[in-house]
Design a protein that fits this description.
Helices cover about 30% and strands about 20% of the residues. It is an alpha/beta fold and about 270 residues long. The N terminus is likely disordered.
Length: about 270
């Protein structure tokens, strides 16, 4: 298989971790604008590889290798949220490339061609690339162990020089039982969410991977911010694909949505 580098002479693609929101993100004009502006500020990718909090499957599995129906993996929302379409082209060539990078003896990367993009992938992509003209491939979370996910990201890092945007999609704090259902989404967050968000932003800024990996013990309110860790896990794939010390790192989106931190970051 031919491996192509960036054809436009641009630097390697950045890596990103974003808080993807829920289907009602489509009604939040400020957040939509932030995502749209973010994509315009980056080089247009040849393809996007998404690791979403909403797909856990081991061994690592790729889906949406062709254009298949979306996965509406949520319940109890108005019907209009189930009418969203995002017919992004598939990326079978990228699936082959991911398999070549991640497969181990006796543990090949699996292919689930019928598995479409879930809302952790398509909800932000609808705002970032509304024309659905960039091929998208989704990769499962094969584990929730931060160290192993860092290693997975490191193996995927060569894709950045081939025009691929590696995107971790979760939520910087995620406790649906303790979120603040106020009249407006921008109401003041609960202390556990604000404290974890502040701690995480500082650890990211100083590239303290040891602390981030041990966030359940090192962060204030770590277990409250993430009673289950699948929404923080995609961050580690992104961090693993980044070289860190030699690259610019910054927060692109911050603030809170019904008390949950929507911090979204970029390296490179």
């Amino acid at each position: 298989m031919e491996v192509k580098s960036l054809s436009n002479g641009a630097d390697r693609m950045p890596v990103v971790y974003l808080s993807h929101g829920a289907p009602p993100l489509a009604d939040d004009h400020e957040w939509k604008s932030e995502l749209a502006d973010w994509s315009k500020a980056m080089p247009k990718p040849r393809a996007i590889l998404v690791v979403s909090a909403h797909w856990e499957s081991a061994p690592a599995t790729v889906g949406a290798t062709s254009t298949v129906p979306l996965v509406y993996d949520f319940w109890g929302f108005p019907e209009r949220y189930y009418q969203v379409r995002y017919p992004a082209p598939g990326a079978p060539w990228l699936a082959e490339r991911v398999a070549s990078l991640l497969s181990k003896p006796g543990e090949p990367v699996r292919n689930d061609p019928a598995r479409g993009l879930d809302h952790g992938a398509y909800v932000p992509l609808v705002e970032m690339y509304p024309q659905a003209d960039v091929p998208v491939l989704q990769l499962s979370l094969p584990t929730l162990d931060p160290e192993r996910l860092l290693a997975t990201g490191a193996l995927l890092a060569p894709l950045r020089d081939e025009g691929v945007l590696i995107m971790g999609s979760g939520f910087f704090t995620h406790n649906l039982q303790a979120m603040r259902l106020s009249p407006t989404p921008a109401a003041a967050p609960p202390s556990w969410s604000a404290e974890f968000d502040h701690w995480g932003s500082e650890a990211f800024a100083r590239w303290d991977l040891d602390s981030l990996v041990d966030f359940e013990n090192k962060a204030p309110a770590g277990h409250l911010a993430h009673p289950r860790t699948e929404h923080f896990a995609p961050l580690f794939v992104a961090l693993g694909a980044a070289s860190g010390e030699g690259e610019e790192r910054r927060t692109i989106i911050d603030g809170f949505w019904y008390g949950l931190a929507k911090r979204s970051v970029q390296v490179g």
